[in-house]
């Protein structure tokens, strides 16, 4: 099913020595593609540290900080937060966890190409990209169902449409870029959680971490 190339080694020169041995998998897919669910399964099975840019952003919002208030407004409009804010949140979170594990799942990142290239230049190159491929119809249905209980400001139909358009406009080039480097593992993610994870497991278990 998924065409999964081998994970590549990292060039560790010229980057923060604290994170020089980190092994990073970018987790990419539209809102409602099931990224978080599959990351939880990878953590349980393989012991990776799961960092979600979305969760980190929401934690910042919940903190009541001035930056959090600005981020809340951006998220409510279905737009992307600034690259500097996201990159800093991810870097800080990795540094807090590096003493526990060297293997990281960066969930929902990069959302646009420059986020990925800057992450690799300033922090560490990614080992690979797991791309969860799901139709807009399926993602919309999943998000509306989640919105019934989540209480999230961005789980409503109008905002979902904007989020999906943003995804197509800004995240698809990420897949094209890393595909050219033979780093993308495309996971068909319309099926059951079990079937999807079977494909994920094949990729992760085939490499030494």
UniProtKB/TrEMBL annotation:
The keyword DNA repair does not apply. Its main location: cytoplasm. One of its GO terms (molecular function) is AMP kinase activity. It is found in: Cytoplasm. CDD domains: ADK (cd01428). PROSITE patterns: ADENYLATE_KINASE. Keywords: ATP-binding, Cytoplasm, Kinase, Nucleotide-binding, Transferase. Gene3D superfamilies: P-loop containing nucleotide triphosphate hydrolases. It is an enzyme of class 2 (transferase). GO terms for cellular component: cytoplasm. Transmembrane segments: none annotated. Its EC number is 2.7.4.3. It comes from the Eukaryota. InterPro entries: Adenylat/UMP-CMP_kin, Adenylat_kinase_CS, P-loop_NTPase. Belongs to the adenylate kinase family. PANTHER family: NUCLEOTIDE KINASE. Catalyzes the reversible transfer of the terminal phosphate group between ATP and AMP. Plays an important role in cellular energy homeostasis and in adenine nucleotide metabolism. Monomer. This is adenylate kinase. It comes from Magallana gigas (Pacific oyster).
């Amino acid at each position: 099913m998924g065409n999964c190339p081998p994970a590549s080694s990292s060039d560790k020169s010229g980057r923060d020595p604290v994170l020089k041995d980190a092994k990073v998998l970018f987790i990419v897919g539209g809102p409602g593609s099931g990224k978080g669910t599959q990351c939880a399964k990878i953590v349980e099975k393989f012991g990776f540290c799961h960092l979600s840019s979305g969760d980190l952003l929401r934690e910042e919002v919940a903190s009541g900080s001035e930056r959090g208030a600005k981020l809340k407004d951006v998220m409510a409009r279905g737009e992307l937060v600034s690259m500097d804010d996201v990159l800093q949140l991810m870097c800080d979170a990795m540094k807090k966890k590096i003493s526990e594990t060297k293997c990281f799942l960066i969930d929902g990142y990069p959302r646009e190409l420059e986020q990925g290239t800057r992450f690799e230049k300033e922090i560490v190159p990614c080992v690979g990209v797991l791309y969860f491929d799901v139709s807009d119809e399926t993602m919309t249905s999943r998000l509306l169902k989640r919105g019934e209980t989540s209480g999230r400001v961005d789980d409503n139909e109008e905002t979902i449409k904007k989020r999906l358009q943003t995804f197509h406009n800004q995240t698809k080039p990420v897949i094209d870029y890393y595909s050219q480097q033979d780093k993308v593992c495309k996971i068909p993610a319309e099926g059951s959680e079990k079937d999807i994870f079977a494909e994920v497991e094949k990729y992760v278990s085939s490499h030494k971490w």
